[in-house]
Amino acid sequence: MIKETVFELASPYRNDLRVTGYSFGKGAKAACIVGAMRGNEVQQLYVCSQLVQTLGDLEKRGAITGNNRILVIPSINHQAMNVGKRFWASDDSDINRLFPGDSQGETTQRIAAGILDQVQGYSYGIQLASFYMPGDFIPHVRLMDTGHQNASLGTLFGLGYVLLRTPRPYDTTTLNYNWQLQNTHAFSIYTNETDRIDPHSAKEAVASILRFLTRMGILKYHSHGGYISHILKETDLHTVTSGTSGIFRRMVGPGDEARYGDVLAEVIHPYEGHVIHRIFSPTDGLVFFAHRNPLVMENEGVFKLIKRLHS
Amino acid sequence: MVENVVSIGLFVDERMEIKKNRFVGTEGTGKAKRICIATGIHGDELEGQYVCWELARRIRADISRLKGIVDIYPALNPLGIDAGTRGIPMFDLDMNRIFPGSEDGAVAEHVAAKIIADMEGADLCVDIHSSSPHMRELPQVRLSQATAKQLLPHARLLHMDLVWIHASASTSHATLSHSLNQRGVPTLVVEMGGGMRITRSYGDQLVDGLFHLMAEQGIWGCPVPPFPDPVIATDSHVRKVRADVPGLFLPVAGHNTRLKAGEPLGKIVDALTGEVVSTLSSPCDGLLFTLREYPVVYPGSLLARILGGEGR
Ligand SMILES: [Zn+2]
């Protein structure tokens, strides 16, 4: 294991930003794993820390096959994490909306360009990502449907689902998208936590990355088989919104089955305590995403269901 | 007449309401031309608040001269303005990156779609922004290259100092202006002053320009006195100066002054050691049209923009 500073930026009033990379194995750039890019991505940081520890052990045991180098960058924006912010503290910009960056540009564009310079050229790029909607997901792998991508590779992580995302204009500035433009196969892994640590789903994420690296011939490692992944398109997901605002009481969570007409959640009058609205399942399906906030707004998307194709 | 464009129930006993004020002129609502004046998409940019107030005040004072329809949307992101944040506070989301939105999307996207639906069919739209709270910016119209040919004749009428035709990034495809231009509503973006403040002289300048534009369109029935033509600039005329080291930026050159190449712009100093860590000078002859006001800088922080070259 080699620990080194892969990017540095001078700060006026606090410690300089130091982005640390851990590399394992030698030779060709095989796989790169990137953790927390936002200040609330504590679970993503934790997953990488566990991965660094495990890869260190595996390397000592000679389990990294020849001519394969793995780079892990556990955190990029810990300066935000250290002051309780989500984005770059001095200008509130989101580093994962600034790729490919510009080494002569604005501060966070320089960070993005410096990171991309270090993580490019790998065969596989894996980002531990978070979603902007607060809620719980079934752990899954996401790929951008850019035409460069081979969706079946995503199934090798052995998580339950692989979601193919059609890129929106703002997606073009993410690390995932820019990796793919440079012919790195890029994957984003979503676990069901962000600002808190869920050890169980973190373990699952670490295992899925080790499984993928093993299946690609980068590691010699005995991992259990995981799931047989289903490939989903966004159009396979059915969004259920809340018809009114108030206190949100959820009846189902990610992974639960729902039948057409089942009550998925209730909305309670915030002052008077009675149920003012019931949210029914519009289809037979499986809960893929569930709103977690105890409060809900009118029209807010509170569930995403995977429609059952057969019963 | 004040109406709600969107109304969404917030968690507890409150609705987020995006309002517009419609002024209907002597031609009624049938075939009359309509202009939309929108601002406040970024909650910390307040220059447009004064413009909306002054525009509404002058229309009300002289309502018999109004022929067409003027829709004023002073607060597209009302909760951001209330909280003094650029984005929508509860989503931590830049509202100008979610257009055209979708009716059945997430709340923010639903709101964006309602705004587009309300503005669709207008003959013109002006979306007013301020610079960031960190900067001071001369009044300018920003046009993308793709729309420049169609929009430049309108942009010239707005009494701004500058029209900047820029190469657009792909992220700008999710802006209000791009979405409206795509839907056949010619939309001009104005950028002026700075965030979290009001520069009344700039606001008055823009309100004069809006009346000029409306007069040209037959929406306002009163001639407007002549005014100087704006400078027309492209990216190749604009030189940026960025901080090379962290510290405190102390400008020496004044905003809106003409500089010679090599003339001092300012310095970056270290408050702890008393040293000057960097001295900066103008990279070209030209007009200092953007200047940093917030002193704390990182490597890469924008300090100044200078309009060089012939620029016309
Ligand atoms: Zn703005």
From TrEMBL, chain A:
<protein>
    <submittedName>
        <fullName>Succinylglutamate desuccinylase</fullName>
    </submittedName>
</protein>
<dbReference type="GO" id="GO:0016788">
    <property type="term" value="F:hydrolase activity, acting on ester bonds"/>
</dbReference>
<keyword id="KW-0479">Metal-binding</keyword>
<keyword id="KW-0862">Zinc</keyword>
<dbReference type="GO" id="GO:0046872">
    <property type="term" value="F:metal ion binding"/>
</dbReference>
<dbReference type="InterPro" id="IPR055438">
    <property type="entry name" value="AstE_AspA_cat"/>
</dbReference>
<dbReference type="InterPro" id="IPR053138">
    <property type="entry name" value="N-alpha-Ac-DABA_deacetylase"/>
</dbReference>
<dbReference type="Pfam" id="PF24827">
    <property type="entry name" value="AstE_AspA_cat"/>
</dbReference>
<feature type="domain" description="Succinylglutamate desuccinylase/Aspartoacylase catalytic">
    <location>
        <begin position="29"/>
        <end position="112"/>
    </location>
</feature>
<keyword id="KW-0378">Hydrolase</keyword>
UniProtKB/TrEMBL annotation, chain B:
<keyword id="KW-0479">Metal-binding</keyword>
<protein>
    <submittedName>
        <fullName>Succinylglutamate desuccinylase</fullName>
    </submittedName>
</protein>
<dbReference type="Pfam" id="PF24827">
    <property type="entry name" value="AstE_AspA_cat"/>
</dbReference>
<dbReference type="GO" id="GO:0016788">
    <property type="term" value="F:hydrolase activity, acting on ester bonds"/>
</dbReference>
<dbReference type="InterPro" id="IPR055438">
    <property type="entry name" value="AstE_AspA_cat"/>
</dbReference>
<keyword id="KW-0862">Zinc</keyword>
<dbReference type="InterPro" id="IPR053138">
    <property type="entry name" value="N-alpha-Ac-DABA_deacetylase"/>
</dbReference>
<dbReference type="GO" id="GO:0046872">
    <property type="term" value="F:metal ion binding"/>
</dbReference>
<feature type="domain" description="Succinylglutamate desuccinylase/Aspartoacylase catalytic">
    <location>
        <begin position="32"/>
        <end position="215"/>
    </location>
</feature>
<keyword id="KW-0378">Hydrolase</keyword>
